[in-house]
Amino acid sequence: MKLGLFGFLFVMWLLILVGGGIVVVILGPISVSEFGNLNWFVASSIKATLAIILVIAWIYILSKIKNLIFNKEIKS
Length: 76
Fold this sequence. Notes:
The protein is an all-alpha fold. It has one domain (2-75). It is 83% helix and 0% strand. The protein contains two helices and no strands. It has helices at residues 2-27, 39-75.
């Protein structure tokens, strides 16, 4: 049980660190220059959409890992 819980916590923190790195390194420098006065709005919309997609992906991954841990614990 402890290994499963600690593994889940390790993966959770790993995803948080990786997600933060992706946001800073990849999403941060995104800029758009074809929309005149709306450049900031379009760039912010793109960044927000990609960040929400990352959060949904992280929740999905953690949910799958949690289900694997619980299924393994129930079978043993």
